[in-house]
Amino acid sequence: MFFEFGIKDFIDILLVAFLLYYTYKLMKASGSINVFTGILVFILIWLVVSQVLEMKLLGSIFDKLVSVGVLALIILFQDEIRRFLLTLGSHQHASALVRFFTGNKKEKLEHDDIMPVVMACISMGKQKVGALIVVEHNLPLDDVVRTGEIINADINQRLIENIFFKNSPLHDGAMVISKKRIKAAGCILPVSHNLDIPKELGLRHRAAMGISQVSDAHAIIVSEETGGISVAYKGQFYLRLNAEELESLLTKES
């Protein structure tokens, strides 16, 4: 007996496929791909046992495990779920909708706001001074700001270089730039545990990747070993940037 297959069924399958693909990307980025594969295998076995073979006793055991497993998965993957919701909320259309209802206007970083940051990074790169600068966009980084020292100053090249000077007490943490101002320095960022990050990249790069995975911010890294400038954005690295490339990347989605 043939079953009816309509446009609603096609959309249903397409949405499920998209959800699985997006979940796969999140798990891969967080290094939890093996757990994700194990869950898929378990679901497949559960469907075969309960629906195809119709084993009542084993099927009921699997049903109980699934009902309890949902809560366990929420606890186990709370960071990934939070990242998914943050990514959903940071989408261009979602952000525009929020700004429409709240009445808040998006403050776009202009060329004059970005250039002091770019020039400071180029200067620190030549001197091999390590730095980590986070440029906030739509998603607020108040939790990160609270971990550091509040500065609330205009964006200034010399100030940035002085903060990251090797003898400065704030040089080891991250600087947060928010609403066209240097909001705080010495901030602590979440460290990414992604196993795909090259081993030659240090803790600053992992911290930059961590904040880029849970927000829509640009995280700029100046390597203390090589002087190279990199940016982490939406879970992706942009390495060995020059001044023009750095400026273009920072103004692209800001």
From TrEMBL:
Q: Which UniProt keywords apply?
A: ATP-binding, Cell membrane, Membrane, Nucleotide-binding, Nucleotidyltransferase, Transferase, Transmembrane, Transmembrane helix
Top-level enzyme category: transferase
Which catalysed reactions does the entry list for this protein? 2 ATP = 3',3'-c-di-AMP + 2 diphosphate
Q: What are the TM regions of this chain, as residue ranges?
A: 6-24, 31-49
Q: Name one GO molecular function term.
A: adenylate cyclase activity
Q: Which domain of life is it from?
A: Bacteria
Q: Which GO terms describe its biological process?
A: cAMP biosynthetic process
Complexes and interactors? Probably a homodimer.
To which protein family does this belong? Belongs to the adenylate cyclase family. DacA/CdaA subfamily.
User: Function, please?
Assistant: Catalyzes the condensation of 2 ATP molecules into cyclic di-AMP (c-di-AMP), a second messenger used to regulate differing processes in different bacteria.
Q: What is this protein called?
A: Diadenylate cyclase
Organism listed in the record: Bacteroides muris (ex Afrizal et al. 2022)
